[in-house]
Specification:
The chain is built from three helices and six strands, in the order E-H-E-H-E-E-E-H-E. With about 140 residues, it is α+β, with helices and mostly antiparallel strands. The chain is globular and about 50 Å long.
């Protein structure tokens, strides 16, 4: 079951515990930054009955979420690449499928959510491993 999956656990931290966690990471682990400082932008897609968020809130171990993701310095016009990701979760294991969307980065800041969704449907038509986006709508950014 673990082929292609990675282990992930998240902890809610208040400001005090965040400082403690960062101190512990710096002094007790060999963790290093993998990417430069950047703004991570996500636009999540869900079904009309909000299946993904409901599964998450109920703690369903087997769940999937879909999102549009891009990285920049806080300015839509600076996005270099835009990806559509499907994240599959099995307990604390997860894996992600990612497709880079061509020609979207330079237009992202000028498109409506509806136009972005139409672009997704068109570009993802040949990516069956990502699931159908046609029954999903933007729900959270």
């Amino acid at each position: 079951m673990s082929a292609g999956f990675r282990y992930e656990i998240k902890f809610p931290l208040d400001d005090r515990r965040l400082i403690q966690a960062r101190s512990w990471i710096a002094s007790e682990t060999h963790v290093s930054s993998r990417y430069p400082a950047r703004v991570i932008n996500s636009l999540y897609y869900d079904t009309a009955d909000q299946r993904a968020v409901t599964d998450n809130l109920y703690g369903i171990a087997e769940r999937t979420k879909h999102r549009l993701r891009w990285y920049d310095n806080g300015d839509y016009e600076q996005a270099q690449r835009v990806y559509f990701e499907t994240k599959h979760r099995h307990g604390r294991l997860n894996r992600k499928h990612r497709v880079e969307l061509t020609g979207l980065a330079e237009r992202l800041g000028r498109l409506t959510h509806h136009q972005i969704r139409q672009e997704l449907i068109q570009q993802l038509a040949s990516s069956p491993q990502l699931g159908s986006i046609s029954n999903r709508f933007p729900t959270l950014q």
